[in-house]
Each structure stands twice: as C-alpha cells, then as structure tokens.
Structure prediction request, 256 residues.
Amino acid sequence: MSIHSNAVIAPTAVVPASCNVGPFCTIGPNVVLGEDCTLISHVVLEGHTRIGARNVIHPFCAIGIAPQDLKYGGEPTEAIIGDDNTIRESVTISRGTTKGGGITRLGSGNLLMAYVHIGHDSQVGSQCILANNATLAGHVTIESFVTLGAFCPVHQFCTIGQYAFIGGGTIVTQDVLPFSLTSSKRENKAFGINKIGLVRRGFSPDRLQGLQKIFRLLLAAKMNTTQALEKIKQMEGDDAALLAAFIEHSHRGVIK
Prediction:
C-alpha cells in the first residue's frame, strides 16, 4: 500500500493494499475503495461511498459529499461508483437523498473532465464522457455511451438516452432522444442521429439506415410527436421499440 504521510484516512475506511493515496487526501469512516485505485492528491471522499476498482481520481475532487438540498438532514445516503473511471480535477459527486432513492450512482469506464458536477440521486451509466463544466442537477438519468459537451447544464429529472451526443453549451431542460445529435444554436434541437459516434461504436450500415428512417419520422415528417410515435410502433427492430418506449415514458417531453 502506498499512502502518503500527509493523507488522513479514518480507521474504519476500507483501503486495499493495491491502492495509491497521495498527499492531503481525506477518506471518511464509511468509505470503501476497490482494488488498484489511485487518488493523486487533495481528494476528499466522504459519506457512505463505495468505489470500485482501478479508478483514477485527480486533485481537488470531492466525492460522496452532502447533497446540495436544503431538505437533507444528514441521513446515511450513498454514492456508488463502478470500475475504471477517470475523474479529473475538481469534480464533485453528491450522495443521494432519502426522497430521491438514497443513491447517486456512476457506472464504469466513464471520463469526467474537470469541474463536472453530478448532483444528488443522479444515475449515470457506463462509457460516458462528460466534458468540462457539465453539470447535472439532482435526479438526472444519463444512460450509457452518452457524450455531454462542455458547459452543459441538465435540469432536474431529465433523462438523456443512450448513445446521445449533446453539443457544448446546450441547456438541457427536456429529455434527449437516444442515438441523437442534439445541440443549441439559437434554440435546442435534435439534428438527427449521432452518426459518427454510432459508427465508432460499431453500428452496422443497416442499423444506421433504420435509425435514420425513425428520426426522419420524428424530425422531418409533417407529424406531431404522437403521430410519429404511432408510426414508429409499427416498425420492426429493437431500436424502434427502444425509442418508442423512451418517448412514451418521458415525463418532461423530448427535444425535437
């Protein structure tokens, strides 16, 4: 075990021998670290926080901190983080609240760039990229393989569907369609499928063509969302079913 002499670790914290803990890190009494984690320096881990294996946490991050919610009364809520995440400088991840399910969760293989904030009770999947200063209010859901651009705030209770790409500076106040390319010029719009990202993830030409057909119904046909949804339900394939279910279960409406 490599623990710097200036690190402060509570006696009841679980820190495996394979971990590296740099100077001026603080690890609270209810923190559990997985194997081969690296805390570079000045990292604060608080609360009932469980962190998986092989995570690299850069200076001035604060994880498992109390939620920024005036109703929070010190309840033993949690922050749970998976494996193989890179968490860059000054990232903040709040633990959950009792009314929001009690858990803030981050999956595996994510890159959180500097100054990202993940608010209480948010659920982030795996293989996501959150660029600098992306901020999630409480109760946000981000599905897997999402790219969220720099300086993007996401409103409470919004859901961002899998494989979506959101351009920098976009203010997200409604749900973002899976597979979509969404950005803000003068107003938020979905511009079609995230073709480059989907190709990089190994989507076949046939699958891309099917998705483009669905998005033409949603974005280009002279139909409202309800009419387009009925057409999509009649289409074959898992992607059509996934998009139809996403739209039907949206509480805030979707960005078109």
Q: What stands out?
A: The CA atoms of residues 132 and 153 lie 11 Å apart. The chain has two domains: 2-139, 198-248.
